Amino acid sequence: MRFRFIEDRRADYPVQTMCRVLGVSPAGYYAWRARPESPRAAANRELLEDIKRVHRDSHGRYGSPRIHVELKAQGHHASRGRIERQMRDHGVRAISVGPRRCRTTDSGHGFPIAPNLLGRNFAAAMRNQVWLADITYVWTGQGWLYLAAIMDLYSRRIVGWAMDEHLRAELPLAALRMAIKGQKPGAGLIHHSDRGIQYASTDYRQALQAAGFRPSMSRRADCYDNAPMESFFHTLKTELIHHRQYATRNEAERDIFSYIEGFYNHHRRHSAIGYISPVEMELKSA
To answer: What range(s) does the Integrase catalytic domain occupy (predicted)?
Structure first.
């Protein structure tokens, strides 16, 4: 194992230094290096190359569960445990960074509050049966950029989104209009959100009524009542936003658009839907 460590890092550190620190002789290392590679070692080396490729293609966003699923889909038969060991031994990890906070929900208003029709039952039998809506924030050099998004609960696809520098009701309304235009849902769809002023406003309630949707709202200050949307925002920030420093809001908008449409909807393997992408899940309901 120590010789393998030296071999993997010989381009970064002097061999003599690594041998001294690890308590092995340079002669022993070079003798080990001269021996023919065993079939197991060759298989592990090839597996590690494939792990790094999938990790790189996901821009560092995938950990061992999704890398295991992705490699299995490509015809590899390595177990998840073996993949985890290779990643741990070679320092391959999914990216993760802590957040910057901003308050987006103002529920201290006099508008009507819809009942909670979901009750944390986050399951849907088909697409366009239940939509979840929420708002999050992104820091830029020009100040906050706010993102309103709508998720189809069945497929976990983000079917509508809008971004702007304000938190007025026009922001989530733009996301709602995009979702309706793209999905063309029928009447009776449940639209679930928090009880913030944007979603309780007269304009938003009228838009839901015109579409024939059934409004549903979380309990006060309970993020778990809209857990799948909270999970999406956490994923977006962990895999993208916390690794960027945006000089402008336009720069952030382009990056978020690319993440949602270029990666998340079409390629990201989602644990809640059997490690397939939202678009693949959506096709099952076609």
So the answer is: 111-286
